[in-house]
Amino acid sequence: MSGKTSLGQLLEQHLVKDPNIRVIRISLLWMGIPSGTWTFEEEFERLMSITWKKFQDECGHIRTIFIVDEVQMLYVPQGEHETASRHKGNVFWETVKRCQQISNLSIVAFAAYGYKGAWDLSSATYTIDVSPFMILPENTWSIEDVRFTEEEYKDYFLRFCSTHLKNMEDEDDINYLQEYVCNTTACHPGLVAFFMNHIRDHFSRQLKYDDTLKFDSIFLYLKSHGFMRAVDEASGFRGFAHIKNLTPEEEELCDRVFRGPINIRQSYSTSGKEKRLVRTNLLSEQDGKLDFASPYLRALYLQRRWGSTIRPIIPPQDFKSFLRGTFTNMNAEAIRNSYCVGTDGQLLERAWQMEFYQAATQVLPADIFISPDVGTYWGSSGYMDFFVGDGRSWAIELLRDGEKASDHKSRINKIYKPIRKISKEWAIIDIRHPGLPNNNPEYSADHHWINVYCQEGWKSVIIEDKDEKVEVKLMGEYL
Q1: Which of 44, 111, 158, 291 could form a disulfide with 72, with the two C-beta atoms 3.0–4.6 Å apart?
Q2: Is residue 349 located within the same domain as residue 301?
Q3: How many domains does the chain have?
Q4: Are residues 302 and 323 both part of a single domain?
C-alpha cells in the first residue's frame, strides 16, 4: 500500500472547492479486472456517458483537471514491444503527451510501480505488488522520451496553423515557421505550444482583419523584447525558471555543458547537482551525454549568464523617432538610483550622456553607429556630445536643468559650426529634473531646441519641441 488512492482523493477534495474548475476522478479498477479484454475508450464511455474524443473536445472549452488512479493497468506488458499498451491505452498516453496543447486540460495520474504485478493482479504474480524504493532508469521516461515525433509535430503544427494562422497563405512561410519552431524547441511539446500560442496571441488583431501574415513578421516578434517579456513571465516554463536560481555548482556545470555536451559518466562522478537540472528540464540526457534540453534554453542561458542586447533590424524612421525611441529605452530605475549627482543633488550632465548613449544603442541596428564626443574629425575645436553616422548625420548636444544654456547655444554657431555644416539634423536637448520649470523660454521657439521634462519618480518624460509636446514612458532595462 503506497497511499496513492488516498492522495488522489485528498487532491480531489481540495480542487473541487474552486468553482471555476471541473474536477473528475476515476480509477482504472472501475473499468474491469486487469486481465480482462476491455478497452480504455469503451470503459471510459460506459463510466462517463461520453466518448473519450468528445471529452477532449469539451476540455478545449472547460477548464478540467482529470485525476486517474491505477494507471499502471495501462502499462506495457512484460516482454512486449514498447509501443504496445495494455487495454488499448495508447489513446490515453497520446493525450498525456499532448496535454500541453490542450490548455484547459490537466491530467494527474497515480500509478503503482513493479514488474508484471504492476498491471496483472493474478495469483501467479502476487509477490511484486509494492512500488520499489529505487526505479531503474530503463523503466522511466525522460523529457527526451516525451518529445514530439516528426509525424506528431507536423500534425500538431499544421492543425494549429489551419485553425489559428489561416492568414499565412505562402507555403514557403509555413515551411519556414515549421522548421524554425522545430529546430528551436527540439520538438518539446510544452515549448512548441508556448511559441505557437504566443504567436497567435501577438498577431490576433492582424489575423482578425484578414491581413496576410508573413514569416518575416513572426521571426522579428520572436526576437523582440516583447517575446522575451513573455518568456520572463511564463509561470510554467520550468527549465527557464530554474536558470534564475542556479547554485554556484549548478552554474559551473551549465558552463561546462554550454561549451559542449559532456559525457554522463564523467558528469555523475562529480555530484548529484546534474540530477536536479535534469529533473527541472533545463538539461537532459541525450545519446549518453548531458546537454541543454533545447537550443532555445541554451540561448536563454547564454543571455542570462553573460548578458546580451537584442538590436533592432529596422532603423528609426527619422530624427524625431530616434530621439523619442532613445528616451523610451532609458532605464528609469538606473536614473533614479544613480550617484552621479552634483552639489545640488541633481543628476550631472555626464549621467544623462551615459544613459543617452546606452539607450541609443538599443534603438539603432547593429550596423548604424552613434559616436560620443565628436569634433576633431571635422576640424572642430570643441566636442559635441553625439553624432549618428551611416548617412543620417544626426548631431545631439545635451545639457541638464538649463545650466549654461546660452553657452551651449553659442557653441553651435561657433566651435561646433563644422559639425553643424555636415549634419542633416541636429538638436540641443535640455533635460530637466522633476518639478523644474523652463527658465529659458526664449529658446523654445528655436526649431533645434528641445525641452525634456522628467516626471515624478522618473517614470516618464515630456518631450517638447517647437511643434508639439508628447509624454514618453521610460521603459528600458539592461540586458
Answers
A1: 111
A2: no
A3: 4
A4: no
Mean pLDDT computed over 72-97: 65
pLDDT of residue 34: 67
* Mean pLDDT value of segment 26-30: 88
pLDDT at 167: 85
User: Is residue 313, in this structure, part of any structural domain at all?
Assistant: no
d(CA 31, CA 41): 10
pLDDT of residue 268: 46
Clarify whether residues 360 and 434 are in a common domain. yes
pLDDT tens for each residue of 100-127: 666 688 888 888 765 444 444 444 444 4
Q: What is the pLDDT of residues 36-82, one digit of tens each?
A: 778 888 889 999 999 988 988 888 888 999 999 888 777 665 555 54
- In this structure, what CATH number is given to the domain that contains residue 461? 3.40.91
User: Mind spelling out the 3-state secondary structure of the chain?
Assistant: CCCHHHHHHHHHHHHCCCCCCEEEEEEHHHHCCCCCCCCHHHHHHHHHCCCHHHHHHHHCCCCEEEEEECHHHHCCCCCCCCCCCHHHCHHHHHHHHCCCCCCCEEEEECCCCCCHHHCCCCHHHCCCCCCCCCCCHHHCCCHHHHCCCHHHHHHHHHHHHHHHCCCCCCHHHHHHHHHHHHHHHCCCHHHHHHHHHHHHHHCHHHHHCCCCCCHHHHHHHHCCHHHHHHHHCCCCCHHHHHHCCCCHHHHHHHHHHHHCCEEHHHHHCCCCHHHHHHHCCCEEEECCEEEECCHHHHHHHHHHHHCCCCCCCCCCCCHHHHHHHHHHCCCHHHHHCCCCECCCCCECHHHHHHHHHHHHHHHCCCCCCEEEEECHHHCCCCCEEEEECCCCCEEEEEEECCCCHHHHHHHHHCCCHHHHHHCCEEEEEEEECCCCCCCCHHHCCCCCEEEEEECHHHCEEEEECCCCEEEEECCCCCC
pLDDT band at residue 433 using 50, 70 and 90 as cut-offs = very high
Asked if 180 and 258 sit in the same domain, the reply is no
- Point out the domain boundary residue: 91, 113, 136: 136
Domain match, 332 and 265 both: no
Domain-terminating residue out of 232, 248, 277: 232
Residues 410 and 432 placed together within one structural domain of the fold:
yes
What percentage of the chain carries pLDDT values higher than 90?
Answer: 31
Task: Give the domain CATH number at 66.
Answer: 3.40.50
Cell of 313: 533590424
Most confident region among 2-16, 168-182, 283-297 by mean pLDDT: 168-182
The whole-chain average pLDDT of the chain stands at: 82
Domain of residue 156: give its range: 150-232
The model's pTM is 0.48
Q: Is the pLDDT of residue 426 over 90?
A: yes
